[in-house]
Design goal:
The protein is of the alpha/beta class. The chain has 2 domains: 178 residues, MOFRL domain (glycerate kinase, domain 1), CATH 3.40.1480; 188 residues, 3-Layer(aba) Sandwich (Rossmann fold), CATH 3.40.50. Helix content is 36%, strand content 19%. The protein has 16 helices and 15 strands. The strands form 3 sheets. A 6-stranded parallel β-sheet has the order 6-5-4-7-8-9, sandwiched between helices. Strands 10-11-15-12-13-14 form a 6-stranded mixed β-sheet, sandwiched between helices. Strand 4, helix 3 and strand 5 form a beta-alpha-beta unit. The chain is globular, with a radius of gyration of 23 Å. The two termini are 17 Å apart. The relative contact order is 0.14.
Length: 449
C-alpha cells in the first residue's frame, strides 16, 4: 500500500499494527506449543532448549498468577486430563481479568498495588503447595503483574508497610528490576520462595514475560527460580532513590538484619530445591515487537525497530525519539518495546504510556518536527497506571486540540496529568483488559514530506 499522508488513515493504521503486537502475546497461542500429552497419558513439557521434560508424575498441581492467568489456565485445561490434576486449578489475577472457569478457583486481587485479597490468595497457594509430594508436579503459569498479585510479606512486615514501600519505589522512577529486588527481600514467595514451599515436588513454570530482556528472575519477581540479588543491593536501591528514611521502620530494620546475616537470604542457584525445577519462556515483548514489524511490512510499509529495550524516563525518551525522527528522509514505521519510567512530581492522573505520548507531542512541537506523523505508546495489558486507558495515540494536531479546550498541555504534563490532557484531545487508547501482559509497545508512523 502507499504510505498514507492523512492523519485519520495514519491513526487507523497505527492501531491495526498495535493490535497485531498484542495478538502475538495471546496466552493460548503462546502456551499450547509447549505442552503435550503423549500416548501413555503422560505430560510432556517443551523447554526453550528444544529438549522435552517428562516424568510419570503422580499428580499435577496447576497454579496460575498474573494478568494472563485465566487464559493460560484455559489453554492448559484443554490439554491436561482432569484425572491428572491434584486439585482444582488455583488462579490469581487482577480484577479486570477475573472470569469464571469451570472446576477452577479464580481469585481477583489488587494491581499495581497489592491488597488483602492478594494476601489471602497467597496464603491459599501456600496451603495447596503443602499438599504437593515427591512424584508430583507443580505446574506454575506466570504472567505480568504476578509480583503485586501474590503478596506474602515476611512475618515482621505488614502488608500495609509493603504497599507503602512499593508505592515509594514506583513513584521514584525506579526500574522494574530494582523494584523487584526490594520486593524479593521482603517476601516469602518471590525470589525462588514458591519453589522452596513446593519442595520436594518437581516444579515447572510456563512464563509469559513482561520484563524487557526477559530476565527470568525478574518476571513476577522470580518465584520459581534462583535469586542472585542480595539484601545489600536492595538497601542500596532505597539509598539511591533517597527512600531509606521514608520507608516504614519494619522494612528498614528487616533489610538491615539481612545484610548482617540475621535473616536468611533468598534461595540461590546452589540450593538443592532447584535440582528438579525448570521453566519455559512462551512469550515476550520482543516477540510482539517483531510481530508489529512483520505486520507493517506485510502492509507494504518500510518498518524498522527503533529500540528492542526502550527504558528510561518518558520525557527524556520522547525527546530522543523526536530528534531521531527528524533524521528520517522518507516515510517509515518505527517500532519499539520496553518499559519506561515516570518520576511523579504532581498529583494528576495518568500512566507512563499516556505521559510518553503527551511528552512526545510537546517535544515534536519544540523541535519543529515536520511532516504527517502519529505516535502511540500502549500497555499490552490494556491498562496504563490506575486508569482505564492503555496509553495514548497522538498526532501533529494533538496540542492544538488541547489548547482549543482552553488547557495548557505543558502545565498538565508537569502535573503528571496526561490522562486529562489526552481526554481533551480525544487521544486516549481505550481497549479494555486484554488478558495478557508483555510490557509496553510504541509505534511511530511518519511521512516527513
Amino acid at each position: 500500500m502507499t504510505f498514507p499522508t492523512q492523519l485519520p488513515e495514519l491513526r487507523t493504521l497505527a492501531q491495526k499494527i498495535l493490535a497485531t503486537g498484542i495478538a502475538a502475546a495471546n496466552p493460548h497461542t503462546a502456551l499450547t506449543p509447549f505442552l503435550k500429552i503423549n500416548t501413555q497419558q503422560q505430560l510432556e513439557l517443551m523447554l526453550n532448549t528444544g529438549h522435552v521434560r517428562q516424568y510419570p508424575w503422580h499428580k499435577i498441581h496447576l497454579i496460575a498468577f498474573g494478568k494472563a492467568a485465566c487464559a493460560m489456565t484455559e489453554a492448559c485445561l484443554q490439554i491436561i486430563p482432569k484425572a491428572l490434576l491434584a486439585a482444582p486449578p488455583l488462579i490469581i489475577t487482577n480484577y479486570d481479568n477475573v472470569r469464571s472457569i469451570d472446576d477452577a478457583i479464580v481469585i481477583g486481587a489488587g494491581h499495581p498495588l497489592p491488597d488483602e485479597a492478594g494476601l489471602h490468595a497467597a496464603q491459599q497457594l501456600i496451603r495447596q503447595l503443602d499438599t504437593a509430594h515427591t512424584d508430583d508436579l507443580v505446574l506454575v503459569l506466570i504472567s505480568g503483574g504476578g509480583s503485586a498479585l501474590l503478596p506474602l510479606p515476611v512475618p515482621s512486615i505488614t502488608l500495609a508497610d509493603k504497599i507503602v514501600t512499593t508505592n515509594y519505589l514506583v513513584s521514584s522512577g525506579a526500574t522494574i528490576n530494582e523494584i523487584n529486588c526490594v520486593r524479593k527481600h521482603l517476601s516469602l514467595l518471590k525470589g525462588g520462595g514458591l519453589t522452596q514451599y513446593a519442595y520436594p515436588a518437581d516444579v515447572h513454570a510456563l512464563i509469559l514475560s513482561d520484563v524487557i530482556g526477559d530476565e527470568i528472575s525478574a518476571i513476577a519477581s522470580g518465584p520459581t527460580v534462583p535469586d542472585c540479588s542480595t539484601f545489600a543491593e536492595a538497601f542500596t536501591i532505597l539509598k539511591n532513590y533517597r527512600l531509606v528514611d521514608k520507608v516504614p521502620n519494619s522494612v528498614h530494620d528487616y533489610l538491615s538484619q539481612g545484610i548482617v546475616g540475621k535473616v536468611s537470604e533468598t534461595p540461590k542457584i546452589t540450593d538443592p530445591i532447584f535440582k528438579h525445577s525448570s521453566y519455559t519462556l512462551i512469550g515476550s515483548n520482543t516477540m510482539s515487537v517483531l510481530a508489529m514489524q512483520a505486520k507493517a511490512q506485510q502492509l507494504g510499509l518500510p518498518a524498522h525497530i527503533y529500540q528492542h529495550q526502550l527504558c528510561g524516563d518518558v520525557r527524556e525518551e520522547a525527546e530522543k525519539w523526536v530528534r531521531f525522527a527528524q533524521t528520517c528522509t522518507s516515510p517509515v514505521a518505527l517500532i519499539a518495546g520496553g518499559e519506561t519510567t515516570v518520576t511523579l512530581t504532581g498529583n494528576g492522573q495518568g500512566g507512563r504510556n499516556q505521559e510518553f505520548a503527551l511528552a512526545f507531542a510537546l517535544a515534536a512541537e519544540h523541535y519543529q518536527l515536520e511532516g504527517a506523523w502519529v505516535f502511540l505508546s500502549a500497555g499490552t495489558d490494556g491498562r496504563d497506571g490506575p486508569t482505564n486507558a492503555a496509553g495514548g495515540l497522538v498526532d501533529v494536531n494533538t496540542l492544538t486540540r488541547i489548547r482549543a479546550m482552553q488547557q495548557n498541555p505543558d502545565t498538565l504534563l508537569q502535573n503528571n496529568d496526561s490522562y486529562t490532557a489526552l481526554t481533551y484531545s480525544n487521544d486516549l487508547l481505550l481497549m479494555g483488559a486484554t488478558g495478557t501482559n508483555v510490557a509496553d509497545l510504541q509505534l511511530m508512523l511518519i511521512h516527513p514530506n
